[in-house]
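Customer escalation, tier 2.

The customer says the design service returned an amino acid string that "doesn't look like it belongs to this structure." They asked us to rerun it and document both sides in this ticket. The original structure tokens are below, unchanged.
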């Protein structure tokens, strides 16, 4: 995978974090809106993982909330049951928290492999049904485990996720997905999306690459779930139902499934918009739904329309695209 030679996104996220903290200290930004911002970043991570599966590889998964739940509950087990987080010394808490986040990603990745290996031989609606069933099975299993609260919910999870932690993991997710897409693995996934039969004819192991993309997307969702668990401090199986999975699909396709930028922008706008419309009381969801309908009618390619932010395109490719444009224009 090519190295990122443009550090503008990392610098931009760092400046963004400092500005948010300064505005909070000055009293211009309430804790409520900082939490909404954290949810936007977490949703952006999950949507980027789904973008790799649906947008790049051309599969149709609607079980992303299931992987989020696996990551959330797995990380909660680490910080609540394996370690008594509240009794740990201050210097030990970051290490346990990182261990919990890693556990959430690893367990979700394993689940992604277990569900992806047999089911990714299916296509289209059949794959969608399998991934949807997987999420519902997970919710049923969680309800049967009393150690994590069962149907009552998982309580006493330490609220250790801060905006700083989430910004760091969001930046790492962007780095991972960007490098994956512009590597040989990503090009193989794009070829599968465009014509799977032709890819097999050219010797590409399509099942391997589909499973690999599925596992990466599931791992990213698990990490996001771990961060979410330590923002909320409480988990319930109904937080991760099929409706939540469709939310991530809406974020992806409303933003534009043809670009990473669309996944990020869609998650941010559609997470913040319902909260910004709360002053309209019961009408806010009507306006939210109407906005989605109008956008799909008049801009079916999504908000970004397949266009990428410049920093999400590797420098060598950007140069090649510029030379091609100049040659076309004479």
């Amino acid at each position: 995978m090519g190295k990122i030679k443009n550090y503008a996104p990392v610098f931009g996220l760092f400046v963004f974090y400092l500005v948010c903290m300064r505005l909070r200290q000055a009293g211009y930004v309430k804790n409520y809106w900082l939490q909404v911002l954290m949810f936007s970043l977490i949703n952006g991570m999950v949507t980027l993982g789904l973008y790799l599966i649906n947008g790049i590889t051309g599969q149709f998964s609607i079980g992303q909330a299931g992987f989020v739940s696996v990551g959330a509950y797995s990380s909660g087990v680490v910080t609540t049951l394996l370690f008594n987080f509240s009794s740990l010394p201050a210097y030990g808490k970051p290490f346990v928290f990182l261990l919990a986040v890693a556990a959430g990603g690893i367990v979700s990745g394993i689940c992604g492999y277990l569900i992806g290996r047999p089911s990714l031989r299916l296509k289209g609606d059949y794959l969608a049904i399998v991934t949807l069933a997987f999420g519902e099975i997970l919710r049923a299993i969680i309800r049967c485990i009393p150690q994590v609260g069962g149907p009552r919910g998982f309580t006493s999870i330490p609220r250790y996720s801060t905006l700083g932690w989430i910004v760091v993991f969001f930046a790492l997710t962007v780095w991972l997905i960007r490098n994956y897409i512009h590597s040989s693995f990503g090009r193989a996934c794009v070829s599968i999306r465009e014509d799977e039969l032709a890819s097999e004819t050219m010797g590409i192991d399509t099942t391997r690459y589909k499973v690999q993309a599925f596992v990466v997307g599931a791992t990213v969702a698990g990490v996001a779930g771990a961060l979410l668990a330590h923002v909320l401090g409480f988990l319930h199986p109904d937080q991760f139902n099929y409706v939540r999975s469709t939310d991530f699909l809406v974020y992806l396709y409303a933003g534009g499934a043809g670009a990473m930028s669309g996944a990020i922008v869609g998650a941010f706008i559609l997470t913040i918009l319902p909260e910004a419309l709360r002053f309209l009381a019961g009408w806010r969801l009507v306006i939210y739904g109407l906005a989605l309908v109008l956008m799909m009618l008049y801009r079916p390619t999504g908000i970004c329309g397949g266009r990428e932010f410049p920093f999400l395109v590797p420098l060598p490719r950007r140069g090649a695209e510029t030379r091609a444009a100049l040659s076309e224009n004479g």
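Tier 2 assessment: The sequence is consistent with the input. The two ends are 33 Å apart (CA to CA). The longest helix spans residues 93-119. Sent an explanation to the customer and offered a walkthrough call.
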